[in-house]
Amino acid sequence: MKLNGLNHLTLAVTDLDRSWCFYHAQLGAAPHARWARGGYLSLGGLWLCLALDDAASGGGYTHYAFSVDQADFAAWKARLTDAGVPCWKDNRSEGDSFYFLDPDGHRLELHVGSLASRLAACRAQPYPAMVFYDEEPKP
């Protein structure tokens, strides 16, 4: 049972237009989808989510997600729960996720899925005002 590396980075932002422009135009992130309160981009193999959050200055929804295989997800969740690791959010999106805190309060996530699987789920049930871009990420 192992983690497979970084899955995605979610950044809480206070101005979606400004942040989208910065990551896309200034840093060269490839756009994949955007909606009223967020957007998905990628930088190399990194899936980057921008999430509009008025509390961004205090950390808000910013968190780091690690990839885990579906077959290992329940065991990882049980391991962390049994160790008393606090949960900070319930999962409401595609793919199994467990949101937890490290000893310093950093927001982390175990996630089963990829940018490609998230975009497929969003195409089936788009978020409000969602727009998709032509370039598809590699699975």
Automatic annotation (TrEMBL):
Keyword Transferase (UniProt): yes
Example GO molecular function: transferase activity
Record's keyword terms, sorted: Transferase
Record domain VOC: where: 5-113
Pfam families: Glyoxalase
InterPro entries: Glyas_Bleomycin-R_OHBP_Dase, Glyas_Fos-R_dOase_dom, GlyoxalaseI/FosfomycinResist, VOC_core
Organism domain of life: Bacteria
PANTHER family: GLYOXALASE DOMAIN-CONTAINING PROTEIN 5, GLYOXALASE FAMILY PROTEIN
Protein name from the UniProt record: Glutathione transferase
Organism: Chromobacterium sphagni
High-level lineage: Bacteria, Pseudomonadati, Pseudomonadota, Betaproteobacteria, Neisseriales
